Structures are given as structure tokens and as C-alpha cells.
Amino acid sequence: MSEDISGGLENTRCSEIVRILSLGKQSGRLYLCNGGDTGNIFFRDGEIIHAQCGLLQGAKAIYETAVWTSGEYRFYPDDSPDVVTVDLSVDDILSEAANRIRQMDRITSLISSSSAVYAHDPDIKEKEITLKSIQWKVLAHVDGKRSISDISQAIGLGVSDTMKVFYTLIKAGLLKESEGSAGQSSARMIELPATPFLEALQKDLTKAMGPVAPFVISETAQEMGYDLLSDDTGHKAELIETLSNKIPSETMSLAFLDTMTDWLNAEGA
Amino acid sequence: MKGTIKDLLKVSGVHGYVIASPKGVQIKLPSKHPLAGTKDRFKALYDELVKSGKRPGNTIEVLWEDMVLTAFISGTASLMVVSAHNVNLALVRMTGKLVMANIIKEL
Description:
The structure holds two protein chains of two kinds. Chain A is about 50% helix and about 15% strand. By secondary structure, chain A is an alpha+beta fold. Chain A folds into three domains: about 5-100, no CATH class; about 110-185, Arc Repressor Mutant, subunit A (Orthogonal Bundle), CATH 1.10.10; about 185-269. In chain A, the strands form two sheets. A six-stranded antiparallel β-sheet of chain A has the order 1-6-2-3-4-5, sandwiched between helices. In chain A, strands 7-8 form a two-stranded antiparallel sheet. In chain A, α1 packs antiparallel against α3 (about 90-110). Chain A is globular and about 70 Å long. Chain B has a five-stranded antiparallel β-sheet with strand order 2-1-5-4-3, sandwiched between helices. By secondary structure, chain B is an alpha+beta fold. In chain B, β4 (about 65-75) and β5 form a beta hairpin. Chain B contains three helices and five strands. Classes of the chains: A alpha+beta, B alpha+beta. The interface of A and B includes residues 241, 261, 262 and 264 of A.
């Protein structure tokens, strides 16, 4: 039955899926994606034992995915992690996740999305402002060009936590939304050529590595001196193999190899 | 995870395979294949490969006469794939790695 646990996050939020898997005493990996962001939550007999979302690991990674309101999820039974990073009960995690969701609802009333770009507001009204170190860290990265998502990656903080800091800085009158800069962030993203092979490669590598996948593919091909548009099956196989070696988790590396080997065979390798 | 011996044999240019462990050597090659009756040579190779435990990596390619032998090692188990020299070696390594992962699961 667990093979069919998949769907859209618009209808079912992460917390609800976690509750269902926990009650069903499931073991395996819950994969979630929201645009270019991906997360994985591992269960053993209904308890969460590991989670990863971008650079975040442990409970923080779960809280990050808990606030996603769009995207997809799928449960892969029996996938197990190489590490254990969560030792909280599901009830404790879901209680904190509920707080984060409430906070995020308040934040999104002011900040449209994590792709929004902000700049320093020169018309500061307060005479004196006290900042926490994390607020200063974020403020130092704001340049009117980088999105909230870009800054969260640069400082190694989760997107939702970074949005929370932005919320406090906007409320303090230190930041204002940068006009006409919404497209700048996406313009810097690498777009791979739209071939069936590269689409399959990017999709599966994103599952294993998250939004950095297109960069890794492009960089690896460059290192190997391969043309991404080449039809050489030998080159494709070598690229897949090299990429699989760059996936930190052995389980995910094998899952990636598994899908891509099928793809190559189907293509008639 | 799939990655079965059948998948490996479907790769164009793969002749067969050998599974070696402390329990013995099992050769699956066509009967007229030049390496079909060379159990002792495979046993000797397996002993050499498994003995050098500090070897970095666990996939070894050996050019053997006009063939390529791709050996996958994990602990004391080994899968050796015999193929033509012009086979898609990356595909053999990918599939072999999956087969090896399944063999380890079953051990």
C-alpha cells in the first residue's frame, strides 16, 4: 500500500503526511520537492530518524519542508539513511512544525515568496536599532540583487528561517522590496539544454542532491570535456557514473544509478 | 532496487560473469567461451583481489587477453564480469554496482 503514497503538497502538507506515515509505522524515505528545493525524511517503524533539506539536516530540515504549500511528495518504502540525525518524537516535531506554519503564515502576509529581492532602505526612521548577529549577517548580504533564497544558501540558514529574519528587518524599516529585480535571481540559474536525457538526469539528480543538480551536471560535464548535447551513449554512461559518485548518500547514489541505468537501457544502450 | 544479473547480461558485449566468495567460485559463461573452464585462474585472481584489503576503491578493470574483466569487490564477495573490450564499460560498472549491492543484501 505504501508504494502509492504520493501527491501534491497543495492538498496535503508535509505534517499530515508525516502523521500518516508515523501512524502506519512505516519505514522508508519521504521525498518532497518544492520548485528547485528538495527534502528527504527517513522513517524507521514510524519514527523519524533522519531528515535533509538542502544543507540542513535533522529536525531543522523537517521544519523547513513543513511550511511548503506547493510541490510534490512521494514515499519510497524501505529506503534507509546512512546516518541518524533526529532523536525527537514525531509528536514533538509536529508540534514545533505547527508553530513554524503559523509563523510562516504571518511572514507570507508581508513577503510574497523566497524569490523576492530586497534592498537597504535609506529612509530609516528609527534613531537607534539593535540587531542580533543573525540579522546583521543577513543584512550584510542584502544587495538589491540576491533573492531571499540565494541569501539563505549563502549563509547556510534554512529558507523559512531566513524569511523570518527578513520579516523582522522589514518590520524594523531597514529593508524595502527591490523594484524590477524579480527576474535577476532566476536569470543566474543554469538552464541545461532541453533534451530527454538531460531532463531525466536533472530530475533524478535533483532528487538526490537538491537544486544544485543543474550546476553539478554542467560542471561535471565541463571537467570531463563532454558536450552535453552529444549522443554518445558511452559519454552519457560515464557522466551518470561520475555524478553518482558525487552523491553523498550511498542509498541515494544507488537509487540514482538504478533509474538512470534503466533510462540508458530503454534508450537502447 | 532492480540491478539483477539479467540486466547485466543484457548489456551489449557482456559474455558472462563469475561470482566468487569464500564458499567457492561460480562461473556463468557460455560453454565454448575461452574462460569457461578456468576456475583456478579466477580463484587465483579472486584471492589476490580480496587479499589486498587496503586497496582504494572497489571496482577493478583487468584487460585479459582480448577481453575486459570488471571485478566488483565488497568484503569477501566478488562479482567479475567478462566482456568484450569494446563494451560500454561505464554501463557495465553502473549495472555491476547495482547487482553487487543486491548480492550484499542477500548475503
